[in-house]
Amino acid sequence: MSRELSHYRVLIFSIHIIEVSDGDKYLRIHLDPVLRKIASRLYMLLSEKIIMRVPSYLLDFNSVVRILKEAYKKNLTDLQKKDNLTPTFKVNEKVREDLATYLAYKTIGLDVILPLLFDDKINEIYIDEPIKPIYVDHSEFGRLKTDIILPKRELDKLIYISKLEGKTIVSEETPSLKTEIRSDDFIVRISIDFSPLTAVSASLSIRKINKNMVSSSIFTRKIDQLKKFLCILYLLALRTNIVLVGEPGSGKTTLASLMLKYMPSYWRVIVIEDVREIILPDGLPKNVVRIRVNPIEANRRYKKEDEITKLLHRSPDYFIIGELQSRSDNEAYFHALSMGLKGIATIHASNIAELINRWSRIYNIDRSRINQIDAIVLMRKKVAKDKIYRGIDKIYLVKNEFTPSIFNPSSNVNNHWDMTTSLNINGVSILDLEKVIEYLPSQESIAIPLYVVLSKKYLNKVNKNDMEILQEHMSKKISLIYSMLRRDDKNDFSKDIILAIEEMNNILP
After folding, report:
1. CA 509/CA 283 separation, integer angstroms
2. d(CA 295, CA 61)
3. Among candidates 240, 418, 421, which has minimal Cα distance to 319?
4. What's the CA gap between 147 and 143, in Å, rounded?
5. For position 440, what pLDDT does the model report?
6. Which residue has the higher pLDDT, 114 or 90?
7. Cα separation of 288 and 265, whole Å?
8. Which among 309, 274, 288, 119 has a CA at the least distance from the CA of 208?
9. Looking at the DSSP assignment, which residues form a beta bridge with residue 202?
10. pTM assigned to the model
11. CA of 300: how far to CAs of 168, 173, 222, 457, in Å?
């Protein structure tokens, strides 16, 4: 026995989520027989003629798709205008556009995997072996099996397009590839490992990249999550150095994109990535320069560490670096901090101790350089049977000589300072802000961690009275942002939140 959990439409396909008797869940794709027949006949009738319209010198994937889609749309429209057109081909305008899109990708050779690429609810697609069925990560139902095995011709075409888009030569010396495939319809980051790294000819991981900015509500649905996100926006207003750390797929890039969304509009921001995953916000003016470097798999020029080192000459007010991977990436990042540059970096690790141990013991980064980081945000990913959870887990403040040893006159906070909130990892002292919040009344739970961050940066610049006034101003702005974030699902307060962050940034010493 099996039961249907959900169904919805993608292009000309219907997607069905099925739970079978043993509890496994499947994603199955259905194409109406009438539409299948129409698509098949149109392809036989038009494909050879239409493919000739693509110039032989044109290699850009999206440009080819555009030409094919327009050609199919025109031909379908012309066919429907003919008096002798059989009723079989008569479809409405929406179906006609969807058919043109499907036929364009089928002409390229990507028809079997197409529904998965178009399905916005699928986050990642996995092909472990060419002869094994695909499985996917679904935003609503977690990890799902499928019955889909890509035909060899389509797998070969997908690999060929990836090599072409990545401008990468795969060999025994470099048997891996990472690139992006972009079209007007979808954006994916594709990673492929080849033999001799794998026991099979190829193993693929295809991550969907959101084309549109996600709502901040994914990090603010619960009060504790909202408070953490609020602390991050406060850190952003202070133009602090922030590291977003977590395992792959934990939400680091999503959070970085949201932080870019809320940055002051007058900041000049440099974004360095090997695959363009950071989303630029629509309708919000930003001064952003995007630099795409070669992935670590490519082992050639335009390397990430070189572009990080050159940041100083690009005069950024803030930077975002996607994925510090190698020793040289990390060394270049800390070199940038030592030059006074400010920004965000993402890096893979499952916990704070693992990250600091890697920096200090494996990469031999000096403790004084690690102390130039202001905050480390740990993201968490949990793969459950029915859902995959992603979110902000913890926020750590890296202590230095300016971090105050007393948060608040209330003794109940001071008594717990050393015992619960201060950690020492290889000589690097960090504060778990969540543990501080545990010992505070609810009305103080944001203000006190904010005071710590504020004091770390400005205690040596202003006197005690000015610090209290500054904290009061900041707390008012934070309260305002807090109220807007709680209502952001129903109303878009993005511009108001940006204005509040700009005002916080402007009143700093």
Report:
1. 30
2. 19
3. 240
4. 14
5. 47
6. 114
7. 10
8. 119
9. 194
10. 0.81
11. 10, 12, 45, 39
Cis peptide before 196 (omega within 30 of 0): yes
How far is the C-alpha of 376 from the C-alpha of 22, rounded, in Å?
42
Residue with tokens 């036989």, as numbered in its chain: 44
In a 3-state reduction of DSSP, which class is residue 43? helix
Helices in 431-463 by DSSP H: which ranges?
433-438, 447-458
Helix (H, G, I), strand (E, B) or coil at 489: coil
Q: Which tens digits make up the pLDDT trace of 337-346?
A: 998 999 999 9
Q: How confident is the model at residue 477 (pLDDT cuts 50, 70, 90)?
A: confident
| DSSP labels, 270-325 | EEEESS--SPPPTTS--EEEEEE---TTT-SSS-HHHHHHGGGGG--SEEEEEEE-
pLDDT at residue 464 is higher than 90: no
Domains and CATH numbers, the chain: 3-208 (3.30.450.380), 216-225+239-440 (3.40.50.300)
The torsion angles phi and psi of 428, rounded to 5 degrees, stand at -100, 120
Report the run of H or E that residue 94 belongs to, with start and end. Answer: helix 93-108
Q: 3-state SS of 335-357?
A: HHHHCCCCEEEEEECCCHHHHHH
Query: Measuring CA to CA, which residue among 127, 145, 132 is closest to residue 194?
Result: 127
Residue 413 pLDDT: 41
Residue 430: per-residue pLDDT: 81
- Asked whether the CA dihedral 39, 45, 48, 52 is positive or negative, the reply is negative
Q: Radius of gyration of the chain from Cα atoms? A: 26
**Two structure tokens written together for 27:** 């994603």
DSSP 8-class letter at 83: T
Pairing between β-strand 422-425 and β-strand 318-324 as defined by DSSP bridges: unpaired
Q: Select the more confidently predicted residue: 442 or 68.
A: 68
Dihedral sign for Cα 209, 212, 213, 219, please.
negative
Q: Report d(CA 138, CA 290) in Å as an integer.
A: 29
CA–CA gap between residue 284 and residue 50 (Å, rounded): 39
Q: How many helices (H) and strands (E) does the chain have?
A: 16, 18
φ and ψ at residue 54, rounded to 5 degrees: -85, 120
CA nearest to 383, candidates 213, 159, 142, 195: 142
Which residue type is seen at 381?
A: K
Q: CB under 8 Å to 35, separation ≥6 — which residues?
A: 12, 95, 99
298 vs 34: CA distance, rounded Å:
46
| Euclidean distance between CA atoms 37 and 46, whole angstroms | 14
Confirm if 444 and 408 have CB atoms less than 8 A apart.
yes
